[in-house]
Amino acid sequence: MTDGRTGGSGRAYELLEPLVLAATVRVHEPPDGYGTPGPGATWGSGFFIAPGWVLTCAHVVGEGGGATMRITGREVGITFPSGAGGATCTVVGRVERVLPERLEERRPARGALWDLPDLALVKVLSPVSHACVWLTDRSRPRFDEAAYFGCTEDLGTPEITGRTTRLLGIAGNGAAIRLGDDDEIEPGMSGGPVVDLARGEVVGVVKARRHSGGGGLAVSVVQLRTLPAAEHGQGGLYHRVMQAHDRHHYDEHLSDLDTRRTWTDVQDELAAPDGDPYGGRGRLAPGERATLFGLLAELPPPGSSEAVRALVEAARGEEPDPHPPAPLSWRDGIGMLYDPPSGRGEAEAMLRYATDVSVADHREPSPSGADEDLWEWTRAAAVRLWRPQRRELGERRERGLLDRAERMRAPAGRVQRGPAARQQSGLPAVASALLELWAHAWETDLYDWRVSVLAGPAHPGRLTPVDSGVRALMRELPEVLRAPLAEAFRRADTDEAPAMLEVAVDPELFGAAVDDWKLADGLPVGVQRPVVFRWAAGSRPPTPAAAARWARVQAGPALDERADCERGRPRSPSPLWLAGLPDNTVPVHCRAPAREPALGSLHAVRDAGYGVVMLRRPPADPAAPCAPYHRGQREELGDALRGEALPGRLQLLRRRMYEADPDAYWAAGSGLVWEDPARPLPDDEPLQGDL
After folding, report:
1. What are φ and ψ of residue 301, in 5° steps?
2. Nearest to 158 by CA among 192, 131, 208
3. The model scores a pTM over 0.90
4. Residue 152, SS3?
5. Which of 360, 353, 281, 284 is nearest to 317 (CA)?
6. Biggest CA-to-CA distance, the chain
7. CA distance 130 to 48
8. pLDDT value at residue 154
9. What is the pLDDT of residue 533?
10. C-alpha distance across the termini of the chain, in Å
11. What DSSP letter does each residue of 487-547 carry, written as one string?
């Protein structure tokens, strides 16, 4: 593509350019009290993605700030087109969030690339009228002709302009998009939108140009899904912004107050993609899609990312791609339904999904009539489908209503939420985050690792991989695993509570201080969610006693038994003695798990079929008595009544210690082995690193 104005791409550029220019902004110093831009050059560009919200790069809003200056909360100037004749409007914006969050703690040297995804959300601090771009719902971009826009000063004054290019591929594990070298990205264009010309949607944010020649990198807008979720669930800032985005375009599509083209109008004029065997019947029209997104935006957010993935799998007929960032909204699920298998049309899959959403559980009560509105639209849109498919949607809806009514008739376990609820009723039977660590062959203190989402009892043994790596030092693991674990939590957290973190390792690593790792918001992960240990893959031989012991401990009351000490002195328990203890016994260890006698005891209790085991990292003072620890564990078991409450109670103890409660200090370093037979782990071999 030489000039970008030939064939279909030229017409697409002409149609889309006015819409993109109207929503693209110049980012600079905040204006003074008279509403004029402050001194200094343009910092970069950005674009409105929803009423009152600008998306740009973190390095743009961090321009001119010191290494210790906090970016979040910083005020910036935003100038954008306003009306005809080249008029502009300047307002103040405040940086609401930067991604990744670690940019607040550590920023690269001047001139170096900032860490991906290098994004910032800016909130406009005054009500103004402005245009908004249409953000893609696709999980991955298509590598087609594109255009990018931003602020340049070619003619001596700041001006928003566009250039054409091609999307060549992805980088940074899908976080970045490579831009072709058809033209040069100029200073000031960072933070501007990248538009897919074939589909009329914004897919990226301009990040960097090459040092020589044209082209560069853009950040995928799908990385917005890595915004931190709400404290208990998947709502929060991402849901607010995307809800406002979809409502804006839905309202524009329905309005007949003027004749200006909307994004939906232009998408309808673009040439239909090749390969539709149904001549258009197999895909939703742009207006139908805008309406569907508007109706989905009226619903509360889903209870969890896994809930969205489950509905996508049911509608698509195959397990969705696990690699893009977790879907956090009902809209994200639509983006995972393009190009379904077996020649099924996209419209069929999307209408099946919309039907399931209309009867799904939500984080909070649905606004009156929102579920019904979604179903009525789905039923009307299904006229494009063959009659058997329409009948299937109706039957699907009826089954869903019956299932939802059944769930509502048994709400006892859903009244309380969070750790307090888990303390009484145990862990919900939902997905969890799984971290597996293996010692790297014969090399000291090197570990291979894998992070996954474990589906839980609903799909026993199902594992959705998130990321993996090799040859990491133990001291490096908190930083290496920060992003993979954050993604696993994002997928597994529910509206009821944060998901549990299960750490599958050999007994030698049961003393690893995983609960103290600070992964997000500066809080130890053990304070934020339950953290338990599991026996590593290949080290869990089944025993006839295991199922009986597990069921008995869960039912309670659980009995404590010192395993590796007797009246404060170390001991190695006899396997016969361990095997003869009552089924509701919980072995308690107070010695270092990586050394004898605790190490041998842990192997012995595993062989004897104990699925619930207590242990700790001993205090630094070897002369400190273990009596307070054993006394505290006995009281915990007595208060818990049932074994299933133990992971939640341990989280509460960690929170009390973090909040400096002296009555909880006895629990410092406490850990819990939690080998739930309803949550089987894979038995594959460790990665073993590079050859």
Report:
1. -65, 160
2. 192
3. no
4. strand
5. 353
6. 90
7. 8
8. 74
9. 97
10. 42
11. HHHHHH-BSSSPPPEEEEE-GGGTT--GGG-EEETTEEHHHHS-EEEEEPTT-----HHHH
